[in-house]
Amino acid sequence: MSKEIGILNLLCILAAIGFLALVVISALTSGDFFTTDNLFIIAFSLLMALLFAINPLLYLKSEGRLPIPGMKRSIPASANGGGRLGASTPPLLDARGRAVPPDVQAIMARMAPPKGT
Question: Would the pTM count as exceeding 0.85?
Fold first, then answer.
């Protein structure tokens, strides 16, 4: 499965580079830059390059190989206590008796009144 994903990502990157090359060629070889045809070709090529480049970029982000500036890394569950209220408290359940997701449990833990009151 990883070979297929790698080949598809490579094809997408090559297509994106091809469309970017088309933009550069169109910009350099056109006599009059601000014609309707030339601007359409450039806008269309940039859009297609973006569409072909987004899948490999999202794949790299999901694999953790693409660092995004300004985004914090997720904290492991053991570092913050796993977002649980405590070992002695029963698990939170919703109105139908289903377990509440961990993010909702963390919010409820922050909203809990102080233990001194």
Answer: no
